[in-house]
Amino acid sequence: MIRVEVDLAERSYPIFIGTGLLRDATVIARAVKSKQVLLVTNDRVDPLYGPTLETALADRRLHKVVLPDGEAHKTLDSLYLIMTALLEARFDRSCTVVALGGGVVGDVAGFAAACYQRGVNFVQIPTTLLAQVDSAVGGKTAVNHPLGKNMIGAFHQPSAVIADLDTLHTLPPREFTAGLAEVIKYGLIRDREFFDWLESNLDKLLARDIAALSHAIRRSCENKAAVVGADEHESGERALLNLGHTFGHAIEHAQGYGNWLHGEAVGAGICMAARLSTRLGTIAPTTRDRIIRLVAKTGLPTEPPSTNSPESLLDAMSVDKKNRDGRIRLVLLDAIGHASLRDDYDPEALRAVLSPGADPLAA
Questions:
Q1: Class of 173-353 per CATH?
Q2: Domain spanning 2-170 has what CATH number?
Q3: How far is CA 352 from CA 10, 153, 265, in A?
């Protein structure tokens, strides 16, 4: 088992990474210390892993909420269901909310934990690659609104994260691939050596080789832990973790939540950020092409959808937490391994990369 620490003083917590962790009563006991436990999962994950976790928590007063699967259910209605379960169980401030599932389950359950009695314990048990490398770590919790993604939420750190690699074996190929967008992101924003490793080892990752997965998840978590430890509430460096996300969130919103997976939209967003960075002269066309080729090799989209106009995407991008004074602020690349937050770009250059076919790869 690998342990990565998120250093936040009195709110520090471990990330446990390994195989067989859901069956390891010692690990579960180290992570979930409360006698009152609300397990939040969804109707796809629950049949696969719910019974195993319930057995590990058999000595607790356990209640469960099973949400419908999918981004379309990351809503205030789902939050209300969790709150109702906590109140009906008469759980007090010593309780723990445990999220078993992907990013949607983790975000909604975490937001409920942040709100219930002004904050209760929270444990993340992510079962998707995207959640294991990104959304389960760092304390961002939220629900969506029809007018914007993740616009209603709170920072609420978990007390532990348990990433059981065995859960990735049952992950559908499309969802597994979606998680690779966040993995690539870390190499681009702060870890050139990791990006080089991904280029050399992507075939092993796509084959779900355990050794390769362990390294990729560990390195991703180490990168995120370092950023979160330095900037918990996204006042500076943490904003760089949003590479590709402003574009991606706009695609998700314009397409309708759930039609593009989050990681698919981020993959296209990373390529759009690379294209805009090249137009601004901060990275060379050869670097742009290198990035797009790696994203394409995963099977992720590299272009925005043809069904949305640049205007519709710009409208969606205007509702973003990084924006200031009406300016859309974007994470752009200065090199592989280095990014910056910018709003001094040419608006026409931005508009150009919002259409499919902008800056095609060199032969």
A1: mainly alpha
A2: 3.40.50.1970
A3: 47, 32, 18
